[in-house]
Automatic annotation (TrEMBL):
InterPro entries assigned: Glycopeptide_resist_protein (IPR052913), Vancomycin_resist_VanW (IPR007391), YoaR-like_PG-bd (IPR022029)
Start and end residues of each YoaR-like putative peptidoglycan binding domain: 243-361
Keyword entries, A-Z: Membrane, Transmembrane, Transmembrane helix
Stretches of the chain forming a coiled coil according to its record: none
Residue numbers spanned by region Disordered: 25-49
The protein's name in its UniProt record: VanW family protein
Listed Pro residues bias regions: 32-46
Residues passing through the membrane, by range: 53-76
Top-level taxon: Bacteria
């Protein structure tokens, strides 16, 4: 009879037909009939399969839900749970809260983090104060390191995790602090050096230093600070960037051939021979902090070494100036010039110095305009005499001293100083020499009068100083004489000696300043022309004090001995009082102490 595999009812959710199977018997003559073939397992009813699917999906969902729950728990906040720094739980916190918690912990352990750290350098030990070398815990960097656990796999999210604090230190300050700890254990670096003695190259081979290194020391201190043990700082050798072999090569390939023969400098206007002595004075090998030697050709020094040689091919530009015509300032046009291009000259000359042949530099003269034009001068407001000062001298115009006064007055006459500019007398005239028209005359050297080129120029300097002083211009540099001379006003006077003693003033007005000089057979005058700003400039003196008397000194008779009568020494104050609109707007104090000038006698001392 028919058999229903699933019973006689079909679940209403499925309207497929029922499967029917008919029973079968085997022949009777078989002694051992085979077992009946198992009927194929009918497909599971839809309700049971869906149940299984739902069950499987449920398991997966449960697993995922559990995983998500665990991840959510572990990743609550920006710092994973279980993360600690210096024993402080930061897990589950935002970065801001974690930083606040870590700072609070650092404050609680302040004694630990501010206590001196014992360091050992070689055989010596010392205590370092963390604040002195910038040693500290970087809170923000430490919190950032703790937050990096967000990228860890799920299997690592359970349990605790300790993050080491990020430690910072200032390598430069640390190296300075450790220098005294190194002490005699270390040695200084010997820098490489190449110089010239005349035209002979001299060299110094480099030697490494034995000292501490800022970065290496900082790394050791960062790693060992919080261990509680003394921190060992390594002693290291530091080698200069230029080796001994490179020094030898520079001498052999550059310094020696550089001064072996002259260099010919050619231009369209002619040529100049640059001798080895001038090359030696201008070729240098400066060394930087790392010990690297770099060849350099200083054209400014080359020009000085060549003296006036370049004047045969160069034409200096001449600034427009001013003169007095019918008692009124009148601009005088300047003129352009032609000069060698210094940058190109330095580069090209340095390139031929290693050569033993073809030592020629082909240079180009460039047009150079004057710095000051007639139009420039006309707009400077130079229209009236502001001040004037005169000093007297003896001997007439034929005396060497008088000739020097006249020469320097001519050199300065008509000079225009623009607003804001500083005038230097040494810078304007250069070194005063025989070639410039100066003569031997008495100068003060080592406390006594001796013959010297340019003697007498101090009188002009004093005259110029007083003219600018009474014009109310800013005093930048001046130095009174060691002894007082009655031909000069006390305190407000100035000497000059190239290159060490100079006179400088600054035009601190909005108008141009013209220096007008004139002379007679017994006097020199300097007048300042500009636009008048002040009502008056006057001097008030204090009484002299601390009077000292001259000593008598006997000198060997001869042409170099200059006898003097001696002058008292004293200290005095001078006040420059400047008035404008009826009020005192400035009161400046000048003070000087004069030595007593000895009475020099050109004769042996009588027994």
């Amino acid at each position: 009879m028919p058999v229903t595999l699933y019973g006689d009812k079909i679940p209403p959710a499925d309207d497929r037909p029922t499967v029917q199977v008919t029973a079968v018997t085997w022949p009777a003559d078989q002694t051992e009939p085979p077992p009946p073939a198992p009927a194929p397992e009918p497909p599971a009813p839809p309700t049971r399969r869906r149940g299984r699917l739902i069950l499987a999906a449920g398991v997966v969902t449960a697993v995922l839900a559990a995983s998500a729950g665990a991840g959510g728990y572990a990743y609550a906040g920006e710092i994973p749970r279980g993360t600690t720094v210096l024993g402080t739980e930061l897990g589950g916190k935002s970065r801001t809260d974690a930083a606040q918690a870590l700072r609070a912990e650092l404050n609680r352990q302040a004694a630990t983090f501010t206590a001196p750290v014992e360091v050992r350098v070689g055989e010596r030990t010392a205590q370092l104060v963390p604040a002195d070398v910038g040693l500290t815990v970087d809170v923000d960097a430490t919190v950032a390191a703790a937050a990096e656990a967000q990228a860890a796999p799920l299997s690592r999210l359970f349990g605790s995790r300790t993050v080491s604090p990020v430690v910072t230190v200032d390598p430069a300050r640390l190296e300075t602090a450790l220098a005294s700890v190194v002490g005699p254990q270390g040695r200084k670096m010997v820098m490489p050096k190449i110089t010239f003695s005349g035209t002979v190259p001299k060299k110094v081979h480099p030697q490494p230093s034995l000292t501490v290194d800022g970065e290496a020391s900082a790394e050791a201190l960062r790693a060992g600070w919080l261990t509680g043990a003394p921190v060992t700082i390594p002693l290291v050798e530091k080698h200069p960037a230029t080796t001994a072999e490179e020094v030898d090569r520079l001498v052999a390939e550059l310094a020696t051939p550089a001064v072996a023969a002259p260099v010919k400098l050619t231009t369209e206007k002619g040529s100049v021979s640059i001798p080895p002595s001038a090359i030696a004075r201008s070729l240098s090998f400066p060394v930087d902090k790392a010990g690297k030697l770099t060849p350099k050709l200083d054209v400014k020094k080359l020009r000085a070494a060549l003296g006036g040689k370049l004047a045969t091919i160069e034409v200096e530009p001449k600034d427009a100036s001013m003169t007095l015509a019918a008692g009124r300032p009148k601009p005088v046009a300047g003129s352009p010039g032609q000069r060698l291009d210094d940058d190109a000259l330095g580069r090209d000359l340095l390139a031929v110095l290693p050569k033993t042949t073809d030592r020629t530099v082909n240079a180009v003269l460039k047009p150079v305009e004057a710095d000051l034009t007639v139009e420039d001068i006309g707009a400077l407001g130079i229209k009236e005499k502001v001040s004037s000062f005169t000093t007297n001298f003896t001997g007439g115009l034929s005396a060497p001293r008088s000739k020097n006064i006249v020469q320097i007055a001519k050199d300065v006459d008509g000079t225009v100083v623009k607003p804001g500019e500083t005038f230097s007398l040494n810078g304007h005239t250069g070194e005063r020499s025989y070639q410039q028209g100066y003569h031997d005359a008495p100068v003060i050297l080592d406390g006594k009068l001796v013959p010297g080129v340019g003697g007498g120029t101090s009188q002009f300097t004093t005259t110029l100083f007083n003219a600018t002083y009474y014009a109310g211009l800013e005093d930048v540099e001046h130095k009174p004489h060691s002894y007082w001379f009655s031909r000069y006003p006390a305190v407000i006077e100035s000497t000059i000696f190239y290159p060490n003693l100079d006179f400088k003033f600054r035009n601190n007005t909005p108008y141009g300043v013209m220096i007008d000089t004139s002379y007679t057979s017994s006097s020199v005058t300097v007048a300042i022309w500009s636009t008048k700003i002040y009502d008056s400039v006057k001097t008030e003196y204090s009484p002299r004090r601390n009077i000292t008397r001259p000593k008598v000194i006997h000198l060997e008779p001869g042409p170099s001995c200059i006898a003097t009568n001696g002058i008292d020494g004293f200290t005095q104050d001078a006040y420059r009082v400047i008035r404008k609109d009826g009020e005192v707007v400035k009161r400046e104090k000048f003070t000087w102490t004069y030595q007593a000038e000895p009475r020099f006698v050109c004769a042996p001392k009588q027994p």
